[in-house]
Amino acid sequence: MESTGSSSSRQSLPPYSGPAVRLDMWLSSQFTEHSRARWQALIKSGHVVVNGKPRKPNYPLHENDVVAFDIPPPQKTELIPEDIPLSILFEDNDIIVIDKPWNLVVHPAPGHASGTLVNALIHHCGELLSIGGELRPGIVHRLDRDTSGVMVVAKNEQAMNGLAAQFKSHRVHKEYVALVWGQPKPPGGTIETLVGRNPHDRKKMTARPLAGRPAVTHYETVEILGDISMLRVRIETGRTHQIRVHLTHIGHPVVGDRQYGRARKKEDLPPVERQMLHAERLAFDHPRTGETLEFTSPLPADMRELIRALREEKR
Asked: What is the number of structural domains in the chain?
């Protein structure tokens, strides 16, 4: 937790004037360089006071209330810059778009303290460390370790907030290619369920949770390759493991998915080292200019090789 700032370092604002409004909502509307979640964290950790007293984020501001706050420096972390090669599709002062290879963890976590995308990004553009005091600087969304493809990362807090708002309002277009077991019937459709933690295994998610969040996945079959089908998948939401959980839910797990899927049936296929899931397309509005940007990533070599082998077998 961040330490409480001293009163001498706080910035006092003019007395509030206007209708009653939540403290966190008002601060995020006045100082848009910080997200509402960031302001909530600052309020809870004592960096915001009203009339000299700490308040809760939902405190309703009244006429003549005086708000004062300080923004602490970013937390010191154990994040170490590492010279890990990056495939950069686009970069400017606000964002960086990369083509993530499979087997690369996005951010440090238990069991993966180094060698992550965040370590590589800090080496490439060290200013990420200053974004909101976060332990996962710049990360607006993520791909599973063994999922390849397009990702966007924010390089400053304004970009972080702008992108986060687009993801939250489902205005980001996210399209994947998946190789799955079986032939979906119907060949295309929409999967809409809650997704939440599996009560029997906290490392897994489930589409039949006791409590979860709405998740929407659209899919269409692109090609039938014997016992395996190639799907194009578009997701409206971005729940943890959403595509893998939803495709397993309808009886067609992703090939190579050791967590939600099943073992390969065909011993004559090339070895499958990971889940056959690739983030092929990502489109969003630039958080500063508003320009619509779209990026694509070609299928990686392992997926192309499996598709080639399956087509050969069909002949």
From this structure: 3
